[in-house]
Specification:
The chain is α+β, with helices and mostly antiparallel strands. The chain has 14 helices and 50 strands. It catalyses: L-threonyl-[protein] + ATP = O-phospho-L-threonyl-[protein] + ADP + H(+); L-seryl-[protein] + ATP = O-phospho-L-seryl-[protein] + ADP + H(+).
Length: about 800
């Protein structure tokens, strides 16, 4: 936690935060002050009558009806600070994820049976405590701000129900957050529906953790935590906000965490709130002043870098200003030529005023477009091409010529091309990055409907990879800049007469070479077997398709097409293939490296399946076809294409069986239709081999899945994992490996329709990679490079059995 100075001046307040001030200033119905509710006074409080609320004995707090909008037609049932401006709400009645909104002339009171009931004007029950309380004698609002329902008039015994045990988004002095309780942020400052964040005491280790709502939770991946996981030790136990104004995490008598300096309740009103932007802030209001609420303490989540669903903290295509992280709210804005999706919710993100991708087609003219330059602006993930460029102009030119490129991100000596949606947008004045946003110079005529972008991919062509057809080998090999054309003599000299063989496969032999550049460039030259494809088709495919690049695909540098000599020139991978590290007797990579290799393969396949146009099926994913560079970044290699399918096709069949025995999906063996799910199956086999460092480990699983449930197969693998790895890996790695096992078995399902997509697989794997334990008891370290993931998982692609295990 970071500590802010004691109250001095109100921190900068963005426009979004002023909405809550407007809500707070809405009129309260003139009220006769009631000290309590008693049994039999069913209509004691009325949303439209003279008695709309009651106060605590000191008058510091009020409980009752609070106008929800300026028309006074709907009302919250709430508790608020009564002597401050604005009158901050500390509790409000909820039904599921939505607030209770009472219409005009609604009433609240204790019935003759002693139950507290909120009724509409036609006596319809709107709300009551859960569980229902009967035989209550009275209900009181205490000076602590706690609303209690008592079964005895004296209320000396513990109350039957109290608001402190049913928190919403706020704690006040005297109120603790215990195991099993949660704070939920509001959707926005003016929308009291359940928002995107929850703060709770983790059930397994007692840590205080902050999670995004509706995302898979585990103890290793909160977006903020008060401390780190400790085996067998409750780290926090309970979040205490004591009556002296101290907010801390207590384990027995040990104070492990403090949010801010202590301020005397005699001098200040205080509250701690989980705000809509995901920050847990402490506020103070000096009694008898007119300055307003001020932030006195703030937790330290990753702020603008929070990896949450819907594109980040500011939504898809949105931008988060890092300079606002210590203010009352994170500032979310839209880039130029973009507008808010919802004017009432700045966190939902932005939409383009004009989507330039709709101009894609045969008539696309780069000269009709230009760029808006945004300095210090970045969308750091989800690039579909990454490469190095010597200048900004070349970066812009590459994006300009690519109709699917919406934004180009330029860093010193590198360029990233992005398509929609843009995610995790950040504006950071200290960052030298630039964003080039493509816009039309004027509004060009739209192409015909046949060429408009189809976001569901149903209208895109599909390449099938893996056969001996050279046409496809060149067509999907991805590149940054124009391909270099080599002569046979140049490559003969570069390889010293094809002397040093690196490997061989069904489609050719690979040799090591050296280009005489400055400095010299080490290359891998694949000399292809003679194929029955025409000269025109070869040249067309190499030059029209080889225009992209992904960091998890081997980069194609150039080609040779001279007579019967057809060769492809690739970047050289110094660590060879994955096969060398999982075969018997090989040097075993540590789990961190193996996990990142697996994630890299998954991201590469995700790109081939979803971001290539047309989409690509590899059909031969296996360890020899996964190459590793000097930093052990995995790169998929060995591409070939059987045929190009027509539009609107998402599957095909092959006349020639492709792939490798042991890695082929059942539908390939049975000559059934082929989809991207064959690659998912092969990846499942490779993933198990990466986990256990052993080839052939998946063979038994394939047999078992014909007869057993997925959960039974997973449990057997987990037991085997503990036997083989329990003595050499720490618990965090074992937990991560077990999650990887669950994903691998899900990929091996016999029915391709129930296998997950590679996007879903990449998401789950990224969240399962352990991060280093924090050295500071307050702040959690930023995630490793492997952790951020492009998009949230779509749980509907998993079967119920898979969802239960993977989440």
């Amino acid at each position: 936690m970071e500590k802010s100075p004691r109250p001095a001046s109100l921190l900068a307040t963005p426009l979004s935060y002023l909405l809550v001030l407007l809500l707070a200033s809405l009129p309260l119905t003139v009220a006769q002050t009631y000290m309590n509710l008693t049994r039999g006074e069913a209509g004691c409080l009325s949303s439209s009558g003279p008695n709309s609320y009651l106060t605590s004995p000191s008058g510091d707090f009020a409980f009752g009806f609070r106008a929800y909008d300026s028309s006074d037609s709907l009302f919250l049932l709430a508790i608020w600070f009564n002597k401050t401006s604005p009158k901050h709400i500390i509790w409000y009645a909820m039904s599921g994820i939505n607030p209770i909104l009472a219409p005009k002339n609604s009433t609240l009171g204790l019935n003759n049976d002693g139950s507290l009931v909120l009724l509409s004007s036609d006596n319809r029950k709107i709300w009551g405590p859960d569980p229902e309380i009967k035989d209550a004698e009275n209900a009181n609002l205490l000076d602590s701000g706690n609303f209690v329902i008592c079964q005895y008039k004296s209320c000396d015994t513990p109350p039957a129900w109290e608001s402190f045990q049913n928190p919403t988004d706020t704690l006040v002095p005297g109120q603790n957050l215990s195991s099993g309780q949660e704070l939920w942020s509001k959707l926005t400052d003016s929308n009291f529906s359940q928002g995107r964040f929850t703060l709770n005491i983790h059930g397994s280790d007692g840590n205080l953790v902050l999670y995004p709502v509706n995302e898979a939770r585990n103890r290793y991946s909160p977006i903020w935590a008060a401390g780190h996981y400790e085996i067998g030790d409750k780290y926090c136990g309970e979040l205490v906000f004591d009556t002296n104004g101290s907010l801390y995490c207590a384990h027995w008598e040990t104070v492990n965490f403090t949010l801010s300096d202590t301020l005397s309740p005699d001098d200040y009103y205080q509250h701690a709130t989980l705000d809509p932007d995901g920050f847990f802030r402490m506020y103070a209001y000096k009694r008898n002043n007119t300055v307003g609420w001020e932030v006195t303490g703030i937790n330290s989540p990753k702020g603008c870098s929070m990896q949450i669903a819907e594109g980040g903290v500011c939504g898809i295509n949105g931008l988060c200003n890092t300079s606002s992280m210590n203010q009352t709210r994170l500032q979310c804005t839209c880039p130029r030529n973009y507008s808010l999706i919802d004017q009432d919710n700045i966190y939902m993100g932005c939409k383009p005023d004009l989507d330039v991708r709709q101009y894609c087609g045969t008539a696309y003219k780069p000269t009709e477009f230009e760029f808006i330059v945004l300095n210090h602006t970045d969308w750091p993930t989800q690039d579909y091409e990454w490469y190095e460029f010597p200048s900004e102009d070349q970066c812009k030119d590459s994006c300009l010529r690519d109709c699917n490129c919406v934004v180009a991100i330029y860093r010193p000596n590198s360029c990233e091309k992005k398509s929609l949606p843009l995610q995790y947008g950040i504006y950071n004045e200290s960052d030298t990055v630039k964003a080039f946003i493509k816009v039309p110079q004027s509004q060009p005529d739209l192409p015909s409907n046949d060429w408009k972008i189809n976001h569901k991919n149903s209208g895109r062509n599909l390449f099938l990879i893996g056969s001996a057809t050279l046409l496809g080998v060149a067509s999907i090999l991805l590149l940054v800049v124009a391909l270099l054309e080599f002569t046979y003599k140049e490559l003969h000299r570069a390889t010293k007469g094809f002397q040093e063989e690196l490997g061989r496969g069904a489609y050719g032999v690979v040799f090591k070479g050296l280009l005489p550049s400055d400095p010299p460039t080490v290359i891998a030259v694949k000399r292809l077997a003679l194929l029955n494809n025409g000269q025109r088709e070869f040249e067309s495919e190499v030059h029209s398709i080889g225009q992209s690049h992904h960091k998890n695909l081997v980069k194609l540098i150039g080609f040779c097409n001279e007579g019967s000599n057809r060769m492809l020139v690739y970047e050289f991978m110094s660590n060879g293939s994955l096969e060398h590290f999982i075969e018997v007797g090989a040097e075993r990579l540590n789990w961190d490296k193996r996990a990142k290799v697996a994630l890299g393969i998954a991201k590469g396949l995700q790109y081939l399946h979803e971001d290539c146009n047309p989409p690509v099926i590899h059909c031969d994913i296996k360890p020899p076809n996964i190459l590793l560079d000097d930093k052990f970044v995995a790169k998929i290699s060995d591409f070939g294409v059987a045929k190009l399918l027509g539009a609107d096709q998402t599957h095909t069949s092959t006349l020639v069986r492709v792939g490798t025995k042991g890695y082929m999906a059942p539908e390939m063996l049975n000559d059934e239709q082929i989809t991207t799910k064959v690659d998912v199956y092969s990846f499942g086999v490779v993933l198990l081999e990466i986990i256990f460092c052993r080839v052939g480990i998946a063979q038994q699983a394939m047999k078992d899945l014909w007869a057993d449930k997925m959960s039974q197969v997973v449990e057997r693998f987990k037991e085997q994992l503990l036997e083989e790895m329990g003595d050499v890996e720490d618990e965090a790695n074992i937990q991560s490996m077990q999650k990887f096992v669950e994903v691998a078995v899900a990929c091996l399902q016999v029915d391709p329709s129930v296998r997950p997509t590679m996007r879903d697989v990449a998401y789950i794997l990224a969240r399962a990679i352990p991060t280093p334990a924090p050295t500071d008891t307050i702040q959690t370290p930023e995630p490793t490079d492997a952790v951020p993931t492009p998009r949230p998982v779509n749980a509907t692609t998993f079967s119920p059995d898979q969802q239960q295990m993977l989440y």
